[in-house]
Amino acid sequence: MSKVVGKGEIPLYAYLHNILKHHFELFSEEIITEYNKSNKSIFKNI
After folding, report:
1. pTM assigned to the model
2. What is the pLDDT of residues 11-44, one digit of tens each?
3. Would 28 be classed as within a structural domain?
4. SS3 label, residue 11
5. How many CA atoms lie within 13 A of 32 on its CB side?
6. pLDDT score of 43
7. Host domain of residue 23
8. In angstroms, what CA-CA distances link 40 with 13, 30, 37?
């Protein structure tokens, strides 16, 4: 059984998906930049 939020209009998983999708759309460049600062690429530059 899924939990529902917003007066029963949207399942919790869909609500969380929308929040995460929006977050990554806004901050993807910063996330990638910070990740690349502390992690080596697994791909060789071609």
Report:
1. 0.59
2. 999 999 999 999 999 999 999 999 888 988 777 6
3. yes
4. strand
5. 7
6. 73
7. 9-38
8. 33, 16, 8
